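Bit of a strange request maybe. I'm writing a small parser for structure token strings and I need a real example to test against, not something I typed by hand. Could someone generate the tokens for this chain?
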Amino acid sequence: MLGDLLPWAEIEKRYNFKLNNQVKGAGNKPARLIIGAMIIKHKLNLGDEETIQMIQENPYMQYMCGLPEYTTKPVFDPSLFVTIRKRISEEELNDMTVSLLKEQRIKQEEKRKDEEGPDKGNSPEPPSPAPANPDAQEFTDSKGTLPTLTPERDYIYVDLKSQFRFSTDKLGTLRFYGDISHTLPDILSLVTYPDMADPQYIIYGNEALKKSTKYNLRSSYNKDLISYRADSSKVTRQLSANLNVAFIENDFTNLMTYDRVSGEVTSTPINVPGNWYGSLGTNFTTPLDRSQRFWLDVSANAHIHHTNSYAVVGHKDEQPMLNSNYLHAYSAKVKPRAKFSNIDASIAYELTLENNRSTYIAGNNKELWQHHIQGRLTWQLPWSLNFDAVINYQNYAAYHADRKRMDWLIMDFSIERYFLKGKNLLVEISAHDLLNENTGFTRMYDATSLTNTYNNTLGRYAMLSVKYRFATKKKLLLYILGDVYG
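Reply from user aminoacidic:
Good idea to test on real output. This should exercise your parser:
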């Protein structure tokens, strides 16, 4: 571990000399805390606030900064980075750290040679090693050779699914879906190997991993609420609801350990009990006027996820700490809609509240509001042209110390037309992300937090699609699709 290699006592002397504390005041933060934070900041290419947030959430980084025990509080105010950069440049900090690290390694090498003595290592013939098994794969850690595992296991599993439906004109339609499924551990979860970039980081295999069993129950309800006005006109309102509950037995997670004495970090796949999630949603659609040209959709949804994970900080033989994580997400959506002979337009607004709580992880995300607005227009133009346009505005709260927000405005449109007598040929021209604001953002739920991920995306592009349908007397349809991207 880098934290165990650096000569912190010498770094503190040079660091205080660079700051000239006798003239400008004594720094009340230890040198290891400041230098460790600076190393983390530049190695991971983080901002000032992101660095403090990362250290606040990660016990290994807190050890790197010399903290005696895990804390959920910020190690210092991010504005301190600005003060440090004014008094000591990044180049001076890098040169000081690299030179001291080289000196420390030279001293360690000299100490090792002194301990071995003048006669060791000078034997004319080293002892012959034991015959090696060409099929075995052995790795070494700080204490010797790791056990060789044979990644071979036999699993027997059965997937069961069932469906039940009950329907009457008076009560509506109620459906139940039940299934039991299994997930097998990945073959890599059975193998032990070190990280070649850091031999003290060991990924242990676990041949005792059990298969994961998921019990899932889903249900849905639909009902048409029909009424008649005084003029005998028919009004149909729609009500729907859905429920989804799943319990996962022997779910997979990683047990992380960090030994403060040896500096060894390990990751071991294990089975954990008690993971489950549930969701409940409802939707109601109703016309707003007598002619039924104006409609309103109202929906509400609730999601709860519970996951367990474990970690050990201190000595790997200590009792693992359980992190019980709960994610709550609640959303409400309102969608007015207008329908005319050749135009169908709608605009929807969705408000979501997300709340993430865990046992010991400091990065709990508390009461973050998300906004999503979507407008859609479908228009039947002259010459049998169909025009469709969609505008999406999304406003997300980022999970950083400054809680900054991200705004997107994504615009798509397409024009299509059918040709030939039987409308067998369809030609469509479409353009996507006209403002080029799609950053490839995705949000994922894991065992301890919500994670924002950015992926490389195509960005603004246009597409030409040509579809031709062949119809035979047997009603056999064959589609030929040609896409041209630009």
